[in-house]
Amino acid sequence: MGANHARVFASLPDAELIGVVDSDTLTAARVAGACDCRSMDGIEGLIEAGVEAVSVAVPASMHADVAVEVIQRGIDLLVEKPLAEGLEQAQYIVESARSSGAVLMVGHVERFNPAVMKLKECVDQGLLGNIISMSARRVGPYSPRIRGAGIILDLATHDINVMGHLCDGPVQRVFARAGSVLHTREDQASLMLGFKSGATGLIETNWLTPHRVRTLTVVGSEAIAEVDYIGVTLDIYDGAWHRRANVVTQEPLRVELEHFVRCCRERATPLVCGEDGVHAVAVALAATVSAKTGTVQEME
Question: What is the pTM of this model?
Fold first, then answer.
């Protein structure tokens, strides 16, 4: 993911990519060469080069250490989701950003998928009526990029965040079932979420199926919407008619990073702020406990 961040940043007219850091020096050199920037040794190298913002796309277990080192120096920061592996770590990152005045954004990239952004517009305009339920399917083969986090924290957090965004409210309760079929961490899970608004959310996710599927169905009192994240499409049905919404196809990561740069320049609060990242982590961890205990978890 870090290589993609570098690729997009290097192409943005309002940003200058100074350098990249990776624990694998060969990877750092390869990415730097492809993006026409410098390969640096550690965070100190970036800081000495005078960077104004940093994008962190390391394994989730390292997010807290790297993020806090950057934020405490007042440098703006984008952290890939999940914000951290633990709730206390996630909260500490947010508190550090608040104390330093740095902009903190969490990389829930699906929020910047043009189909999701268009769906949010339709929801806010009342085209779907009241949201009754949401159902997401996020499945596919295992990726070697994944290190540390299980599938609930790594993948389900995408849909936890999107669903909360659509119904403008936090998750109040969680029930989940999960298991490990081919890997040491959980590699398949089903989550049921209860939102403050009264809406319910169902999330199916796994690293077992041969083909990637990324879909979301939203059932409203007035219409139903279907999103294909990969195809970047939005279909709306009201029972009497069906139409495909006019969605301008753009790479979600590019939309996300353009927004981050704009927030840094304007000192604005990002669409996905630190508190959003904390809530996604909290719900994911509650789902993990639910899966282990077989009990419904109430969110505080």
Answer: 0.94
Give 115-136 pLDDT, tens digit per residue: 999 999 999 999 999 999 999 9
Give the three-class secondary structure for 78. Answer: strand
Q: What is the pLDDT of residues 6-28, one digit of tens each?
A: 999 999 999 999 999 998 889 99
SS3 158: helix
* Tokens of residue 211, six digits: 């083909």
Q: Are 166 and 120 in contact (CB under 8 A)?
A: yes
Half-sphere exposure of 235 (CA within 13 A, CB side): 10
Give the residue-averaged pLDDT of 228-235.
96
The candidate with the shortest Cα–Cα distance to 71, out of 49, 36, 43, is: 43
- Residue 242 banded pLDDT, cuts 50, 70, 90: confident
Q: For the chain, where are the E strands, in sequence order? A: 19-20, 38-39, 53-56, 76-80, 104-107, 131-141, 171-179, 188-195, 200-206, 208-220, 224-228, 233-237, 242-244, 297-298
Using CA atoms, how far apart are residues 253 and 246, in angstroms rounded to an integer? 20
Percent of the chain's residues with pLDDT above 70: 99
> Which structural domains are found in the chain, ordered by start?
2-108 (3.40.50.720), 110-250+275-298 (3.30.360.10)
CA 152 to chain centre: 12
Do the Cβ atoms of 193 and 171 come closer than 8 Å? yes
* pLDDT reading at 145 higher than 70: no
CA-to-CA separations, 190 to 15, 152, 159, in angstroms, rounded: 40, 9, 12
CA distances from 282 to 37, 161, 247, 286, 298 (A): 37, 11, 32, 6, 11
